Amino acid sequence: MKPIDLATLANADYIDRLYQQYLQDPATVEPQWRDFFAGVDFAGTRPPGAAASSAPQKRQPRDDDMGIQALVHAYRELGHLIARLDPLGHNRPSHPLLDLSQFNMTAADLDRHVGRADFLGQTDGSLGDLIDKLRATYCRTIGVEYMLIPDANQRLWLAQRMEPIFNEPALTAEQRRWILQELVAVQGLEEFLQTKYIGVKRFSIEGAESFIPLVNTLIEEGACLGVEHVVMGMAHRGRINTLALVLHKPYEAILAEFEGYIPEDEGDGDVKYHLGYPHDRIARCGRKIHVGLSFNPSHLELVNPVVEGIVRGKQTRLHDNERTGVIPVLVHGDASFTGQGIVLETLALSEMPYWRTGGTIHIIINNQVGFTTLPKQGRFTPYPTDVAKTIQSPIFHVNGDDSEACVHAAKLAIAFRQQFHCDVFIDLWCYRRHGHNEVDEPSFTQPLMYKEIAAHLPVRDLYARRLESEGVVTAAEVDTMKGDLRDRLEQAMAAARKSPPPQPVVPLQGLWLGMTRAGSDWCAKTAVSPEIIARIGEAANRLPPDFTVHPKLKRLMQARLEMGLGRVGIDWGGAEMFALGSLVLEGTPIRFVGQDTQRGTFSHRHACLHDYNTGRKHYPLANLDPRQAPIIIVNTMLSELAVLGFEYGFSSADPYNLVVWEAQFGDFVNQAQPIIDQFIAAAESKWQKHCGLVMLLPHGYEGQGPEHSNGQLDRFLSLCAENNMQVVQPSLPAQYFHVLRRQIHRPFRKPLILMMPKSLLRSEASVSRLEDLTQSSFQLVIDDPANPPREQVRRLLLCSGKVYFTLDGARRKHELRNIAIVRIEQFYPYPQKELAAILSRYNRAGEVVYVQEEPRNRGAWSFIEPLLRQMLPDGRVLTYCGRPRSASPATGSHRLHAIEEQTMINHALDLPTQTAQPVPPSQQPQPTAPVSD
Fold first, then answer.
1. DSSP secondary structure string, 571-616?
2. Which of 100, 238, 533, 627 is the most buried (most CB within 10 A)?
3. Which helix (H) or strand (E) holds 6?
């Protein structure tokens, strides 16, 4: 087709005359102009050059013109409701809003010449043919929801690619044979596994076989459109076939897992249908593309934000600023996509600037049943994808029995994503030939459905018959395809049984090159020079011209300048600023996110300054030096589960970026527990996946009630094993400074869980000196700085965090010289050597007391008691001092809290019980800033 001469677009009169001619009869203008004006009408805009004053000259639309336009719009909007989407045939034949009566027409009008309004496909001009073409486009085996998209250009783009071809691509014989070969491989592998490994779970893809050519089309087309990395996340169903036919994991390796061979990897491993796999492939267009399937636990949708974080991390490290080189593909189950809140949280993140990945391809394997739950019991909407309408993305519903339609939907989806950087959804309507797994009996709960499924031919056989009838292949060729596959699988099984291939530990490759596994030395040199500290303090106080800082923050900024010069003690906010500032000056990028993190829940951070007059923002740590590494400190939406999953994914993708997530209060981590249990704590053991994520959890008993006291220290310690993570409760700002820098200055990465303070943030007792940052490093255990005479110490108190300062204050008040107080700063990995040295130092202390603020069944006591008992020599007694066991983390009464605390102090210091008095309100600890839930 001859292209439009762009020079003519400047001729307003010419464009207007041509447009008037088009309005009278579209057939009288050249095809390229006809399509152009049709697109303009579809978008609801005036063509370039057509003046507003020319509008009255246009032919006035007749009532039937408006009816035809409404008809076209109705099919675009509602045609999917009567599309043939269900392979089992339960489709809606009609919809009242598509009835001719809705447009003031009857069957008698079907032969009337009406034109085609702005429909972009060719018709013979009659109403009947227009309806036929609309139904062919929107009501066959592809149903499209795209009229909810607010961007007219996106709607027009889709219409231009669907309507001219009536949503039926013209595939070559070679392309159709490729689809058949894919289906033969899918079904053949499932049948082989079914006969050779009877009753073994594999979560078969049977019923959704078109998924494999669909995904491979996404990858092939994506490579041609500039995609270099695909990060996939999916649940169990179809995973074995995906590993084999998309990731090209060798059949021998897959069958060895079915044979039950124990992998030689370190750690505990995981079941075969949770495993991931990387693969580099050359697309048919000749371009290389890396495809990685992420590991995934049984909690089906947890992998969603993790994949998004991995993608964002890769995009950041590879400078993929357009977000077209690295893309996420997420595969969902229909029931889980509707039912699990993390789906909506992840969709919300996709629209946020610091979490956007440029669009995700979502594929819903729509089994039309959950485990045993039918859609009517699992959701209240017609489609599982209805939740996706919150972000107004296109949705393609496609019949899984029509593999060509599935391939077409995949091409549209990846092209749209690359063009507009938006999420796209493919709702693959299918069925589940077996139960939830191969040992489940589905007819217990869906007997009628499974009678239909038993009588329904597999997609492979349906497609083979179709191609045979059209002369594309012969039955003999199909049999040859099947036989070749069987022979290949038999050979692979024999090899797996005779000499199973090694299952090597996934090496630290890609962005992890240069990293190592953790050895026995977890120390690091983290001190920095006084000049660097002073430089950070000075640079952080430089403001842009005409920037007016809030009057109350001037004193804070001046104090931090003084801290950097060593003139005043360094508080927690200052230590954090110096730690982060020194890292970015050394070239380490930082991503620091959380709820209200820029200011800090307790108004201690102020990483983002707001001009007092204009509201303009200034980030001091992002403006230390033109050559520094980037730093992002940003508030998140009020989500823990998805945001923590995203940050975990980002950290696992890029070990050279310090990633920090902060909870508003420590107990908020309750909402993210599945990410902690199934990824952060266990990923290295299960999948050999490392990460250096830092979690900041404000923790401490200060009378703020049950929900704002406890960061779940005991829960994290219960998850500790095999050196999987670090659990630290620092008591001094310098300790926080060094432990942050330690994360980067070691050649390996481990998650770091920090129980952070609240009232200590401004405590005059909890400050550090400049030399503590410039001449020291992180201390696992801190001996008593009061240095009591060791030969006089009869009672040794071990504690952690804020309670040290409470105990030390009471000890000084009562002038007790026979008690030493030692702080455990790191609980895990357990500092046995350092504690042993402490115990031998105070060898005359006959009683060792572990003191904690938390109830006995919480905190660190349950974790540390057996470890301490093993270390104590005969004759030394270990006792507990703290609150009694409690179902709730803390009391809701500030008065009762004070009484409990005083009682605990008396017991720890062996003071007379009668001295226990309620602390007067004026002396009670108070929140450091107004806070809310």
1. -HHHHHHHHHHHHHHTT--EEEEETTTTT-TTS----SEE-TTT--
2. 238
3. none
In this structure, which amino acid lies at residue 138?
Y
Query: Of 830, 813, 811, 833, whose CA–CA distance to 821 is shortest?
Result: 811
CA distances from 93 to 86, 109, 314 (A): 12, 21, 47
- Do 169 and 411 touch, CB atoms closer than 8 A? yes
The pLDDT value given to residue 79: 97
Query: What is residue 679's DSSP assignment?
Result: I
Q: CA-CA distance, 12 to 17, in Å (whole number)?
A: 9
Q: Which residues 6+ apart lie within 8 Å of 7 measured at CB?
A: none
**What percent of the chain has pLDDT above 90?**
77
> What structural domains does the chain harbor?
6-162 (no CATH), 174-503 (3.40.50.970), 530-774 (3.40.50.12470), 782-923 (3.40.50.11610)
Q: Is the peptide bond before 502 cis (omega within 30 degrees of 0)?
A: no
CA distance 654 to 688: 15
Q: How far is CA 260 from CA 254, 497, 501, 686, 787, in A?
A: 10, 10, 13, 17, 59
Nearest to 292 by CA among 254, 252, 350, 246: 246
Question: What would the 3-class secondary structure string for 700-745 be?
Answer: CCCCCCHHHCCCCHHHHHHCCCCCCCEEECCCCHHHHHHHHHHHHC
For 697, the token pair is: 């959890």
Cβ-count burial of 323 within 10 angstroms (0-12 exposed, 13-18 middle, 19+ buried)? Answer: middle
Pairing of strands 694-698, 361-366: unpaired
Q: What is d(CA 43, CA 50) in angstroms, rounded to the nearest whole number?
A: 15
Q: What is the pLDDT of residue 235?
A: 85
| pTM, 2 dp | 0.90
Average pLDDT over residues 5-32: 62
Task: Specify whether the CB–CB gap between 400 and 428 falls below 8 A.
Answer: yes
What sign results for the dihedral spanned by CA atoms 258, 259, 262, 263?
Answer: negative
Tens digits of residue pLDDT in 336-373: 889 889 999 999 999 999 999 999 999 999 999 888 88
Summarised one tens digit per residue, pLDDT across range 794-839 is 999 999 999 999 999 999 999 999 999 999 999 999 999 999 999 9
Burial tier of 463 (Cβ tally within 10 Å: 0-12, 13-18, 19+): buried
Q: For 410-468, what is each residue's pLDDT tens digit?
A: 999 999 999 999 999 999 999 999 988 888 888 899 899 989 999 999 999 999 999 99
Q: Classify 49 as helix, strand or coil.
A: coil
Residues with Cβ within 8 Å of 817's Cβ and at least 6 positions away in sequence, in order, are: 788, 789, 792
What is the pLDDT, as a whole number, of residue 378?
83
What does the pLDDT look like over 696-751, one tens digit per residue? 999 999 988 888 889 999 999 999 999 999 999 999 999 999 999 999 999 999 99
Say which DSSP state 113 is in: B
Nearest-angstrom CA–CA distance, 694 and 657:
11
Nearest to 208 by CA among 230, 234, 231: 234
pLDDT (tens digit per residue) in 159-193: 999 999 999 989 999 999 999 999 999 999 999 99
Contacts of 105 (CB under 8 A, 6+ apart): 64, 67, 71, 127
Q: What is the pLDDT of residues 150-165, one digit of tens each?
A: 999 999 999 999 999 9
More confident residue, 630 or 339: 630
Half-sphere exposure of 223 (CA within 13 A, CB side): 17
Task: Please name the residues in contact with 29: beta carbons below 8 A apart, sequence gap of 6 or more.
Answer: 18, 21, 22, 37
Centre a 10 Å sphere on the Cβ of residue 618 and count the other Cβ atoms it contains. 15
The closest of 783, 823, 756, 825 to 572, measured between CA atoms, is 756
